[in-house]
Design brief:
By secondary structure, the chain is α/β, with parallel strands linked by helices. The protein has helices spanning about 15-20, 35-50, 65-70, 75-85, 100-105, 135-155, 175-190, 225-230, 240-255, 260-270, 275-280, 285-290, 300-315, 335-340, 350-360, 390-410, 415-420, 440-450, 455-475, 480-490; strands at about 30, 60, 95-100, 125, 165, 195-200, 215-220, 235, 295-300, 315-325, 345-350, 365-370.
Length: about 500
């Protein structure tokens, strides 16, 4: 049996996970046992077009070359890099961590003993870049940071009443600024106080303070639960949708002993923030939700959270869901590509991969929403959450606006300006004046079935008009299947 082709990788490696987790803390300096190219991609290129970070400053490559990989080894290059950084004052007040990369791991460059000769406290972290994806990598590096820098100093720390840690936000997490702000708002609304946002808003020196929280909130189902389990306090995942967010706020209130404040917050949110969901979901647009299908490809938190909210709460039809890291029954990228080529749902939440597949398929009536990396899309604003109550509103708002955009494709437009520029004449004839063969009608119906439900009626009328106009041009008395196929091809259907 031939090996399976891996198409369009969606995830990075344990090396990227280590960089994006450690370098979020300003008192760390990472020396990557890496060629300069592998440094540039993770430290400069990708963070710029996702997190809008021009350059991760607290990371330096050892700039290993073919010489080191070919037999010389990387120890001398790492030592040279360290000495130059120290001489320039770059490492003052910083914890130095040397990390492996795919290139150094291929030659077995374990620098555990070498780092002991560099400077007191310098650590070596084996990123397992060749075997571990970014999700397992982030979970492992968070646990490692606690074991190395937290547990030895946090053993005697007692949890402070009313305090909550948020575990997980790092570089390269989709929509992290917005979702983090919403999760903070929910915790404070439930009566809690934020202890640490780890690692994104913490320092490495803060790590022992993780033990001081009464409750932990893990932002992502992909990673972070390992650290939360080690801390030994109650923990829960950040929520999606209205029902889940209400349960989340109530549980925070119960754990902190602030249930009365939590209930007051929920009641206030129903009167204010969630009013928009009610007005859209139960307003004139309400009929659309039950007739619109959705495909979702995203990190596990977003894939499962959006499926629960859109499917279970709003009643939308979930065409498919695929999470990252992929669960056993999830379609892989090639299967997703084939599904989108056969028939794209009305809405697709995904990454740049799914956007490319839709473009390949010519699925111009499918509406795409960025819901995952990879992809050149900046997510630094704090007003576009997917999580929590405000996320429930934002997602519904985007869906309704997407439906409006889909309908726009079928609105009649003024042809006068087009005529002035030599465009086609306006079609005035109403449909239904020429007889259609059963086969011709079947060809049209089959094409319309591939369109989202909402614009189908408008598209049907428009295509009938175009087919019959083409028949009149040719003085035909009946609509034939070949004529319908020609008109559909002209319309890009």
């Amino acid at each position: 049996m031939p090996p399976a082709l891996i198409r369009d990788l969606s995830d990075t490696s344990g090396y990227w996970a280590a960089v994006w987790t450690m370098c979020a803390m300003p008192d760390v300096h990472v020396i990557a046992d890496a060629p300069v190219g592998c440094f540039n991609l993770v430290a400069t290129a990708v963070p710029d077009y996702t997190d809008a970070v021009p350059h991760i400053e607290n990371m330096t490559p050892a700039t290993i070359t073919e010489q080191e990989v070919g037999g010389k080894g990387t120890s001398d290059k790492v030592r040279w890099t360290y000495e130059n950084l120290r001489a320039g004052g770059v490492l003052d007040g910083k914890q130095v961590i040397v990390i492996s990369t795919a290139e150094s791991e291929m030659i077995g460059a374990d620098l555990s003993s070498v780092v002991a000769t560099l400077g007191e406290g310098t650590r070596f972290y084996w990123s397992n870049s060749l075997s571990e994806d970014e999700w397992a990598g982030r979970d492992r590096v968070l646990r490692w940071l606690w074991e190395q820098f937290g547990a030895p100093h946090g053993a005697g720390v007692q949890p402070a009443p009313g305090t909550v840690n948020i575990i997980g936000p790092t570089y390269g997490c989709f929509n992290s600024p917005s979702d983090l702000e919403e999760v903070k708002r929910l915790i404070i609304g439930a009566g809690g106080r934020i202890n640490l946002v780890y690692p994104m808003e913490a320092t490495l020196a803060d790590t022992p303070r993780l033990a001081a929280a009464q409750v932990n909130v893990v932002m992502y189902r992909e990673f972070g639960a390992g650290l939360a389990g080690m801390l030994g306090q109650p923990w829960l995942y950040a929520p999606f949708g209205m029902r889940e967010t209400t349960a989340f706020v109530r549980e925070i209130g119960r754990l902190l002993g602030t249930s009365e404040q939590a209930e007051a917050f929920i009641a206030g949110e129903k009167r204010t923030t969630l009013r928009a969901v009610w007005d859209l979901w139960r307003g004139p647009q309400g009929d659309w939700f039950g007739t619109t299908d959705v495909g979702i490809v995203a990190g596990r938190s977003y894939a499962e959270g959006l499926a629960r909210y859109l499917g279970d709460e709003l009643g939308m039809k979930i065409a498919f869901v695929s999470a990252r890291p992929r669960r056993p029954d999830d379609p892989d990228n090639d299967e997703i590509r084939q599904m989108l080529h056969r028939r794209a749902p009305a809405f697709v939440f995904g990454s740049i991969n799914e956007k490319i597949y839709l473009s390949e398929a010519g699925a111009k009536f499918a509406r795409f929403f960025m819901a995952s990396f990879p992809g050149p899309t900046v997510r630094r604003a704090v007003g576009t959450p997917f999580m929590g109550y405000r996320g429930a509103v934002y997602v519904v708002q985007e869906i309704v606006n997407g439906l409006y955009d889909t309908l726009f494709n079928f609105l009649p437009v003024d042809q006068a300006y087009s005529m002035m520029r030599g465009g086609p004449p306006k079609i005035e004839a109403a449909p239904g004046n020429l007889p259609w063969s059963l086969e011709a009608k079947a060809v049209l119906d089959d094409a319309l079935e591939k369109l989202p439900y909402i614009p189908r009626i408008s598209a049907s009328r428009q295509m009938q008009m175009q087919v019959e106009a083409l028949a009149r041009e040719r003085s035909l008395k009946e609509i034939t299947p070949d004529l319908v196929r020609e008109a559909l091809a002209n319309a890009g259907m």
